[in-house]
Design a protein that fits this description.
This protein is mostly helical. The protein contains seven helices and three strands; from the N terminus they run ααβαββαααα. This is DUF2812 domain-containing protein.
Length: 232
């Protein structure tokens, strides 16, 4: 750790690109402005946009946009968490990153979007496609939340009746305790059975956005010029 709050790559296992990004991010923080940017030279494009977003988020910044610089590098636009402002990202909660209009202005993103469309049929840079996926995401999320809440009711009843059963047994009222224990057991069975539709709803929600999310991340990675493969 250096005096200015940044870390050396050899000290904590971070890569040189990560260490340089964190150093520049620290310099941006010292300027005490709501919106700022970090310029990344082309040679540092070895980690994914998602990882940049995570690193920034851990330090109080939200990644809101990206653009190419004249020297072939990239500029990441960041916004401080502690300012109450609107988020300038692609709207749905299932994907975060540059807006579609920003990506449509990037040649590498357009080329990758064409490849994604050939591979999966998904028009990642289409506003109508994004809106459709968003609506389906919201619909399935509401269904998942509703089923989850319904499943919690028998679980709560099973717990409460079990507690009352134990209390009655301790007070020498075995008949009431046995009745409450039966109610608790039945409620527990209902809870277990209700988990299956809840799990199916969660899987359906993830599946509905999986193709778009994967395609969007490919396009963003191409625009940023990063390698999204995992490093050992």
């Amino acid at each position: 750790m250096t005096d200015d709050g940044t870390t050396h790559a050899e000290d904590d296992g971070t890569s040189p690109a990560e260490a340089e990004f964190l150093r520049r991010l620290h310099e941006a923080r010292t300027e005490r402005t709501r919106v700022n940017h970090v310029d990344l030279p082309r040679s540092e494009g070895e980690i994914s946009l998602r990882h940049y977003s995570v690193l920034a988020g851990e330090r109080g910044w939200r990644l809101t946009g990206m653009e190419r610089t004249g020297d072939g590098g990239s500029r990441l636009w960041l916004e401080r968490f502690d300012f109450a402002t609107a988020r300038h990202i692609a709207g749905p909660a299932f994907v975060e990153g540059p807006r579609l209009d920003e990506l449509r202005g990037n040649e590498a993103a357009l080329l990758e979007a064409e490849r994604v469309k050939r591979d999966s049929g998904m028009g990642v840079l289409s506003e109508s496609v994004l809106d459709g996926v968003h609506r389906e995401h919201v619909r399935l999320r509401r269904r998942y939340v509703r089923l989850g809440r319904l499943a919690s009711l028998p679980a709560l009843l099973a717990f409460v009746t079990l507690m009352f059963s134990l209390v009655n047994r301790g007070e020498g009222n075995p008949e009431a305790a046995d009745t409450l224990l039966i109610v608790s057991a039945v409620s527990a069975v209902v809870f277990v059975l209700s988990l299956w539709p809840t799990i199916r709803a969660a899987r359906a929600r993830r599946a509905a956005v999986a193709d778009y999310k994967a395609g969007y991340e490919r396009v963003v990675a191409a625009a940023l010029g990063t390698n999204t493969t995992k490093r050992s």
